[in-house]
Structure formats: C-alpha cells, structure tokens
Amino acid sequence: MKQEYTITVYTENQIGLLNRIAIIFSRRKINVESLNTSPSEIEGIHRFTIVINEVEDVVKKLARQIEKQVEVLKAYYNTNEQIIWQELALYKVPTDVIAEKVKVERLLREHGARAVVIRKDYTVFEATGQREETDKLVEVLEPYGLIEFVRSARVAIIKDSHGFHEKIKEFEREKPGAEVIENEYLDKQAEVFSM
Amino acid sequence: MNTLEIAPEKIALPKKPATRPVSGSVAVLEAFLAEGVETIFGYPGGAIMPIYDALYDYQEKLKHILVRHEQGAIHAAQGFARSSGKVGVVFATSGPGATNLVTGLADAQIDSTPLVCITGQVYAHLLGTDAFQETDVINITTPVTKWNYQVTDATEIPAVLAKAFYIAKSGRPGPVLIDITKNAQLQQFEYEGYTPCDHIRSYRPKPIVRKEYVAQAAALINEAKKPFVLFGQGVILGKAEKEFKAFLEKSGIPAAWTILGLSALPSDHPLNVGMLGMHGNYGPNVLTNECDVLIAVGMRFDDRVTGRLDKYAKQAKVIHLDIDPCEIDKNVKTTVGIWGDCKETLPLLTELVNAKTHPEWLQKFRDYQEQENQAVINKELRPGSTEMTMGEVINVLNEITGGDAIIVTDVGQHQMVACRYAKFNESRSNITSGGLGTMGFALPAAIGAKFGAEKRTVVAIIGDGGFQMTLQELGTIMQSGIDVKIIILNNHFLGMVRQWQQLFHDKRYSFVDIASPDFVMLAKAYGIDGMHVSDRQDLREALTTMLLHPASYLLEVKVGKENNVFPMVPQGCSVSEIRLS
What we know:
Chain A has helices spanning 17-26, 56-68, 95-100, 102-110, 131-141, 165-169, 189-192, and strands at residues 3-11, 32-39, 46-54, 72-79, 83-94, 114-118, 122-129, 148-151, 155-158. By secondary structure, chain A is of the alpha+beta class. By secondary structure, chain B is α/β, with parallel strands linked by helices. Helix content of chain B is 37%, strand content 17%. Chain B is globular. Chain A binds chain B through residues 11-12, 15-16, 19-20, 23, 27, 60-61, 64-65, 67-68, 70-73, 171-173, 176-183, 185-186, 192-193, 195, and chain B through 138-139, 142-143, 146-150, 167, 199-204, 207-208, 210, 212-213, 216, 219-220, 223-225, 292, 317, 324-326, 328-330, 334-339.
C-alpha cells in the first residue's frame, strides 16, 4: 500500500549531489512531495529529508540507490509513525481585516500561529505543525483575504535514532562497520529448510 | 645553560614535501603515469588544448590513439578495459566532444566498465554564459556515471584524479567523468606529487562479509536436489574465475551464463550448461523454473534474462552473491543475499558446501540440449540450404581459432548467434554491449580490446547495420596500425528488428531493409585488405586467410536474409515458455 515515507539521508557536502539524488526519483517518475537539505548533528555532514508517497518495497530500493551514491553515507526511510515531523508555514493577511475582526486574531491563536511582521498594509503569520494543521489555517484565513501562503519542506527526527555520532565512526578507515543486507530467513531455519 | 637553546637544525620538523611548479594539464598526465595508464583514446579540441599541449611532451610514456569520433574513443576505452581488466582512459573536448561520450558512458555504466573520462571545459569565468562549445557536461552525465566532478582549480587535480581512478575500479566498477575548465588546465601550481586514493569516507566499495549468511547459503545448497548456478560478469570483474570454478567443481552444480558472464568459465567445462535469457539455451531457461535452489553469482537478473518476473523461478530458494547491495532483491526476491566481492565470498562458500555430483539433474540439461540440437543448432551450424547462416561462420571460426580469440560483438542477431556458438578457453574473451545494446560498439571496442591485449587475436563480429554506425573508426585502425579482424555478417537487413517484425508485427517490415556500401572497397580505401564470401565452400579458406593476415582484415560474409535466432523467449513470456521455432 502506498503511504508517506520520509527518507533521511546523511551526506558529504558536495555540489551536484542534490541532482544525483533527485534523479533517482525522477527517473522512476516518482514525485517528491517535499525535500529539505540542512546541516546535521555532525559538522560538515548534510542531512536531506525527502518525503514521497510510495509502497515500502519501492522505498527500500530507492534508499539503497541513494546510499549507493559515492558521497552518501547513509539513507534511512521511515513511516510517519516512526518520526517526529514538522513543517513551517507563512500566511500574509491584510492588516485592516485583522484589526477589524477580533475573531480572526482568535482563530490564529487557536491554530498556534504568531505574527512575524505587522505592517500597515499586511501582517505575516507563522505557524509550525503537520500538514493538516497548516492546511487548516489556510482554509480558515481564506475568507479574510489571504494574500500569500507558503509552506516549507518537512523536517523530521527519527524516534528510534541515536544520531549519527556513533555511526560515522564506522565509515572511517580504522573502524569499518559491517552493513547488513536484510535476510528475512535468518534465524528462521525451519522456513528455509522446508524442501 | 638554557636547555631551550637547541640549534635549530637539530629540531626534527615534519618535512614539507618537495614541490615543483606544474600546470594542471601536467598534473593530469602525471596522475595517469602514477595509475599505470599506458593508452589514452581521445580527440582534441579547443577546451582541452592545454592537456594536449602537455601530452606532446609525454608521447614517450603515454600512447594516445586518435579516434575519428568521441563515441569511438569511449567504446575503444571500454574494449580496452574489458580485455585488460584495467581502467580505460578517454580525452574529449567540451560541448560536442563531451556529449559524444554520453552513449559510451551509459553503456559503461550499465555494463560496469571502469573508465576515467577527462573532458575539457570552457574557462571557469565563462561557465553558464552559453560560451562557445559550453555544455553542462556534469549534469548531462550524472545519470550515466558512477561519479563525476568538475575541476575549476588546478590544485584539486591530483586528489580528484586519485579519487576518480579509485571509484572507477573499486567495488562495482563504472565510468567516472572529470570535467576540467581550461583555466585549471593552464594554471601553474605547486605540485606535491601524487598519492593514490584507497578510502573515501562515504563510499563503501567492499563490505565486510557476513559469514552467517554464507553459512546459511551453504546449508541451502547442501540440502538441494536440483541446484542451479547463474553467473554474470561479476565473476570476471572480481577476477574470481578460479574461485568460481573451484566452487562449481566441488558442489557439482550446473552453471549457465549471462552474455556478460560468458568466457568466465571455459565453454567446454562439463558443468557449463550454456546461455541464459531471451536467446539462450533451451535447458537453462526451462530448468530455471524447475531447480530448487538458484545461486546467482555476480549477475543482476536483467529482464532479458528473466523474462516474465512473476513466473520466474518461483519454486526456488534464491541465493544471490553480489558486490552491489542494490542488486540484491532488486528484481528477484532472494532467500539469502550475500553482499560481497565474489573473490572473497566464493571460497567461503566452497569451504562449506559438500562435495557432490548431480548426475541426474545434469542429465536433464543434456536432454534439453539434445532437443535443441535437433530443433535448432544442427541446422544452424551445418545448414543444408544454400544460404549461409551466421552460426556456421562462428562454428568454422571456432574450429580455426580453437577458442583462443577475443570475440567482440555488436548488437543484434549476429551478437546473439556469436554469444550462443563462440567457444572460449580464457576469461575476458567475450566483449559485447550487453545492458545498453549499443549498435556501433564493436568496431571501436575491438580496437580498444586489441590495445588491451596485444598478444591475442581480436575478431570483431558485426552486422551490416551496426558497422555503418561507427565505420569511421576504420581510420583509427589505418592510422594506429592495429591488427583487428573484422567479420561483417551481412544479411541486408536490420535483422533483429526484422525478426521481431516477422514474429510479432505480421511481417510488416518497417524500415529494416538497409543498403550497404561495398564494405571491402571501403576497407581498401583505408588501406585494409578484405574479401567477400558468399559461397560456403570458400568460407573456411577466407577465415583462415583473414586470421593469418599480418594486419587488419575485413571479411564480409553474405548470410541468409531472413534467418531468425532461436530459441527465443518472447517478450512478456516466462522463461519456460521458450520457443524452439
């Protein structure tokens, strides 16, 4: 079944790597819902956060293809349940409407939005949350003359992850770690020898 | 006395490496020498002129082969890499020079051929200005290279080239392209010498082998009644032919090859049961769907090998040995995947498997072979008709060479026939464009193959269509004086397409009737001797003449116009639905 997966990629900082990663999706005609690049917990190592809608089998192969790129250290994929994630949205609304209608301010507060800029002609609000929450606020603001709306890519923290500090050591020359190819039959001898 | 007052000359300071000023271009050539490069295939042009200028002083140490088209250069480098096991090296200029490499890069990428291609690029300050002969080579070639990088500063060159060679040849090999702007080629810098690269933090070419997986694979093999080995180019790329043979001989398992794995195991080896795939042998295809344990070694379950995937070896437990983790579970779900270099994993597996023979199971392959002999092979190799067949040409060639030649094929019917019937004693003897199916590959690849293995006889077998795609490389043969034997199997058709039109498009022969020049006259124009053969009785003598000729030779053989290649697994069918006619 297709569902949202968040792919987290730890990489070296290299020009052209974004393209190398992006074409892994476009080659297979897979739409990237959201893509964010940022620093990671380790200096000099970048972290890509990519959201796609796919079945797990495909996502697993994509993660391996990404990891195969020379400058990629590691790619993880997770379902929404396995991560803490947020997106940031900005809303531009005419200031006079806000000023006139007290209700609007209440609505904004209810949705956790806060004003970033207040000018005579417009006010910019910011809200952080998950997709449904920031979408909901668009709906709420539309009747009040929403001028502009923009939302950032998703950023996500993997619940189970212990960070990359330990992992990175496995990539150094001195202490290479053994990677695992998943083997669903390992430790299930009975199933393997069923001939 | 103040103990700190030590004479300065007595303090052991870390020695600064001796440097000397060199240009970026010289640094490129020095890197080549340090990497053991001897032969470069290339074509000069504006943006790579500084490198060619430096090359003028390196002619004693580096052999440069001037091709007639950059596609010829890269296919030659592929042929070189495939016959020698070394990295093929290419020079091309910016713009059209670089874009002409794209087909070869894609071919090398899909067939895992180690290449380092150097392209010239416009001055760094002109990047993005639509300068003369500027193209965005890095972005054009990203999908078809294992790695690529643009150098804009000469000081980067030694380290970048060291990385390029390391990436190209390690792990699953592949093509690397380094784009060097003209200013970087010209720039003088303090050169500290060349240090080869053997580690990149984010790159793991060779995993640590997990022995528990090997043990589990061995247990599966030891339980098996009808085990079957499929092998691909991984055996050759891993230089593991011996280890592979030892594994087969101990376990007694019949083995079939992909066309890129061909020649890794001698043709006459008793456990070699033949070719897999669309035009492969009858037994290996049918019995894929009957074996109980399928052991894939260094192959990638290409669709031309598997046919319909949902009906492929569903009854079997699958063991897959590969150095590229992306290949494991990509097309065929494995029971046990062994990620690693087969040079390492095969001996571990051999140690754990029981010494066995499988006479009854092997006999099944022989029985199918007999059926195939009667239905297809006998009349292909010894036809009664007046028209010559491609198969009989290969058969006579085998008899004369004894299987010692390197055979380079193009793409199409002749390729399938050559792979089916050519005999090989030695590894690295079958060179063909497998994954990409690049027509025009054979002639330049044969030139490169000869440079890569100068003591061996190199025979290019090419169709009349494919030959006309890169025939300008006859000029390269003429100028370099290299000795390549060329056989054109001329059926006056784009034969494979015609065959499909016949079988699947109701004989609607749409644009497959191809006219050709007089190939022998054409070769003569390039100073290459040649001969036409259209009578069976002249074939053996003509082939002998060709092979004994002290220089390059072109032999055009007229073969039946509408012969088909069989057996055949029609597209979309299961391997067990293979047709004999």
